[in-house]
Amino acid sequence: MQQGKLILIVGPSGSGKGTLVAFLREQYPELVFPISCTTRVPRPGEENGSGKKYHHLSKEAFAQDIAEGKFLEWAQYGENYYGTPKAEVMDALAAGKNILHELEMQGAEQLRAKVPHEQLVIIFIDAGPWEELKRRIIERGHMQDEELQKREARYIKEITFKQEADFIIDNRNGKLDEAKARLKEIVNSVLIR
Ligand code: 5GP
Question: Longest C-alpha distance within the chain, in Å?
């Protein structure tokens, strides 16, 4: 049987990845959306409702899963750890299912080394230069200067991943509808049906 595709959505914090992934969930209910593990505490409302994104684990339980080789990749992001459960992804790929997964760049880098090139598709969401993202972040609410500087340093690292991606989506302010349409075009073009 032909193996499925693993489509990764990556992009800097604040690039709008979450909104685009929610859109894809609606459009492609037949895709597998793996549930990541994280040590981050749940945000209000996150535990309920459809489209569960995370299993929330203690740091000890997460470390145990690392030791047992349960993650296909894992990374530290800010104060927290995030990881992709290996069994869920490998079983789905082997069964010829297509997977859509959002993650940060260190994890995407690891998956590039593990998943055969022809099965992996990396889509980078580009929300423009730091100044524009900073404006969005500030508009969403007050943020300490120190935190803003950390975000900028992370942005500088994250934007370098753009050249590694197979596709880049322009999601600057006012481009959301175009970004959604382009994303659908790309997903339709790579899916194994
Ligand atoms: P948040 O805490 O805002 O939900 O996510 C923080 C970051 O972790 C985001 O960039 C998100 O894409 C990333 N992330 C979510 N799940 C995973 C995962 O399974 N592995 C890795 N490496 N990153 C993840």
Answer: 53
Does 89 contact ligand 1 (Cβ within 6 A)?
no
In a domain, 94, yes or no: yes
Closest to 12 in 3D by CA, of 145, 130, 187, 163:
130
How many domains would you assign to the chain? 1
Rounded to the nearest angstrom, the distance between the alpha carbon of 1 and the centre of ligand 1 is: 31
In 3D space, the residue among 108, 121, 119 whose CA is nearest the CA of residue 75 turns out to be: 108
Classify residue 1: in a domain, yes or no.
no
CATH of the domain at 122: 3.40.50.300
Q: With the C-alpha atoms ordered 26, 30, 32, 35, is the resulting torsion angle positive or negative?
A: positive
SS (H, E, C) 79-110: CEEEEEEHHHHHHHHHCCCCEEEECCHHHHHH
69 to 64, 66, 79, 84, 161: CA distances (angstroms): 9, 5, 22, 11, 26
pTM for this one?
Answer: 0.94
Nearest CA to ligand 1 atom 21: 103
88 is in which domain, residue-wise? 6-190
Structural domain includes residue 184? yes
Sort strands 6-10 and 99-102 into parallel, antiparallel or unpaired.
parallel
> With a 6 A CB cut-off, is 103 part of the ligand 1 pocket?
yes
Tens digits of per-residue pLDDT, 91-142? 999 999 999 999 999 999 999 999 999 999 999 999 999 999 888 888 877 7
